[in-house]
Amino acid sequence: MSFGFLTAQDNLSEETKSFVIHEKGYYVLQNLTILDGTGDSAKYNQDVIINGDKIESVGADLKVPFGALAINMEGKSAIPGLVMLHEHLFYPKTTPDKKYGVDQMTYSFPKLYLAGGVTTMRTAGSIMPQADVNIKNAILRGELPGPKMDVTSPHLDREGTGLVELGPFDSTEQAVKMVNFYADIGVTSFKVYNFITRDDLKAICDAAHARGMKVTGHLCSITYKEAADLGIDNLEHGFFASSDFIANKEPDVCEPFKQSKSLLNLPVDSNNMTDLIKHLVEKNVALTSTINVFEPYTKREVVPGGGLIALFPKAKEKVYKRWASKQGRDSLDYELFNKSKIWEKAYYDAGGLLVAGTDPTYDGRIVAGYANMRLVELFVEMGFNISEAIKICTLNGAKYLDQEKAIGTIENSKIADIVILNEDISKNINAIRSAEIVFKNGIGYSSKKLFKAAEGIVGIR
């Protein structure tokens, strides 16, 4: 699969240049602590040579090549650019009739993702696919700062979703036409949703695969096991969207209340869950953790990752009121949150490809960039060591995108996507919040300037 992002920008707009610390060039980043994304333990006192948009060499006490600029990074650490697979360029709003709706964040979110260390992302569902394609291409041309993007189709679904920005299909044949339509306008992957049938999913997978593209799903009407057998490539939200454990489940019917209750009632060490995990691994179905979406409210940050400052005042007020109202009243959320952490790690430990994404929807707490940093922290809370947490958020995402030969690790000949942190992440995962420079395609962007540019405007543009 190719998204056309393997060439660095040569001509940056004045706006993009305003966020650049290091233009594309020849650099030796010296004396770094590196977690390289492979899952190996940290390497200390390391140098990284960047030549253009590629990593030329990594090692200790490297000779500075003629013409290269040596930059002392002592006391700092480095990780690969994050590869996040459930992101959006939209943010929730409240419509006049109180229905759930979303607005496009064309200006703020690309900057925030890059500021938070995300150098590659999949949108995992678009409300304005043509806008997302245009943003992707503008970033590629250097007109806007932001990550490289795999643009996913809108949520392909039948009637019932209730999201006013989405248009449902009413037949399997129409679903296939939508696959080809969106592929023709430039999307590079597909997402299915809550109310589709098994026939719909099989036809969508066949049509997408025929064009060399993958299908992910936030399911309800179809069980995970059914979806795996029908050819789906990826399942979203860990096991939160699994309807496999509903007793006497009616085929092709979404019953959200029964779904949630079945997971709450399922023992954490259930053999049925173990069997499902084994089946998914055997079918090579990737699992996207969006565990941050389900992070409880009590004694947790209002905006996980510290992004309250990014919200415009009315959005900030709305998010804070909901957070305050939930303090001490989310025991069931905690129960399912803790179960899900165990199940997702069990899937990883069984050999499954666990990938990561933040899904900035729901109640407005999930803000691009900030949420990505928080998600890395949560993987350590789930029981992963720091090297594993970084690998899930970098190399594993690259593997799913079939780009692991180009991105996802700090290694010779890889594209120079590197996040420079002011603190030592090998000792403390919270150092993920100390991003200073985000190299994307060999160009070093100021994380602080990017965050600053989006202050107070999330929820507006």
Automatic annotation (TrEMBL):
Signal peptide: none annotated. Gene3D superfamilies: Amidohydrolase, Metal-dependent hydrolases, Urease, subunit C, domain 1. Residues 79-431 form the Amidohydrolase-related domain. It holds the Pfam family Amidohydro_1. InterPro entries: Amidohydro-rel, Metal-dep_hydrolase_composite, Metal_Hydrolase, Metallo-dep_Hydrolase. This is Amidohydrolase-related domain-containing protein. The lineage of its organism: Bacteria, Pseudomonadati, Bacteroidota, Flavobacteriia, Flavobacteriales.
